[in-house]
Amino acid sequence: MLNDLFAQRVNPDVPSALSGLFPQDTDPRAISFAAGSPNESLFPVAAMQTAFDTAIAQTGAHLFQYQTAQGNPDLRAKLAARIGKWGQVPTTADNVVLTVGGQQAIELVAKALLNVGDEVAVEVPTYVGALAAFDLYQPTYHAVPLQADGLDLDRLEETLKRHPRIKLLYTVPDYHNPTGITMSVTKRRELVALANRYDFIILEDSPYRDLGYEHAPLPAIKSFDTEGRVVFVSSLSKILMPGLRTGWLVADNDLLAAIMRVRLASDLETSNVVHAAIDAYLDANDLDAHITALKSNYREQCAAMIHALAAYFPDDISYTQPAGGFFDWVTLPEEIDAAALLRDTVIPQAHVSYVPGTNFYPDRDVHNSLRLCFTGLTPAVIDSGMHRLGDAVKGAVRG
Ligand code: PMP
């Protein structure tokens, strides 16, 4: 069998955490709360086209030449200034690495740190794409629950005492995927203290940090880093466009060097053409004004979803109250399997879809939760889809 020649990390018997996430429904009435995509009607396409023209006209052939491994220095300087703006991550272009989306940054960190069997702590639920990246290195996971104000640090510390070899903790502190939860500032500071005490590295993944509906971004975990133990990752996918495939990480000293070593082996460097165009876009446009427009749309969509959860769903469910980002997380009564409900009832009868929560757990051992994304639909469509979904859930809870 050809499959016998594959590496264990792509064992075909164990599907990727990222496969089969988005259910297909071709019915014309279908409404999807599944894919976590930004709303493409808000993409600044014309301005980006102009920016590509400007970048190519300014630099010509050299734009298309191999450049530097960390990525376009002008864009790195702008991102460093941006992330330093609220006193969040004091850094310079030298510590910024441009990556192919935040996803590559996560994968590079995993590749730089993890041997087979190494111990990794993740909050649960957690971002499936991070699990898919870590899974390639076959770690041992330790799941730490989330609370309304972020990671449960008491549980984390208990886990660290029992498993002192944990070397990496992955967290999405801002408007978390999949729950919408944000970590308090106090916990951010305490988490760094725990990392110093128990000697592990924090991977802080924050693509939604600019999309808070109520306040400016909170200080990043990285801003409390005293020993270069935090790798900060973010992305332009949610605030500009995912097709730019532009993310970045901030790291220090030897950790930065280790990441650069695996980056060179992976792809040498990112696309300078795209990054020079983004740099030109940022020179000619006000990114913060664009983000303000995104937030006013997403805020309304989120409010429509929360309103519908209160209006149409049974009392024995619970849901998060996101203050930003793309997602809401719904917990059904324990006996209900959200994947079976989706397959057997919600899609065939209500023509609505969501992502069942199981894939967001490394051990895939929790079945009664689901992720809803509200960014792609108008408030009226959200309301009607949620009404149908609420009726289906009510039927299941009663049945
Ligand atoms: N981290 C989180 C928490 C995400 O939700 C996503 C996108 N769904 C990513 C990283 C990766 O996105 P990208 O590679 O497009 O930056």
Automatic annotation (TrEMBL):
Q: Does the keyword Transferase apply?
A: yes
- Provenance organism: Levilactobacillus fuyuanensis
- What is the protein's given name? PLP-dependent aminotransferase family protein
Keywords in alphabetical order, please: Aminotransferase, Pyridoxal phosphate, Transferase
Cofactor(s) recorded for this entry are: pyridoxal 5'-phosphate
Q: Which CDD domains match?
A: AAT_like
**Which Pfam families does UniProt cross-reference here?**
Aminotran_1_2
Residue stretches making up the Aminotransferase class I/classII large domain: 46-389
A single MF term (Gene Ontology): transaminase activity
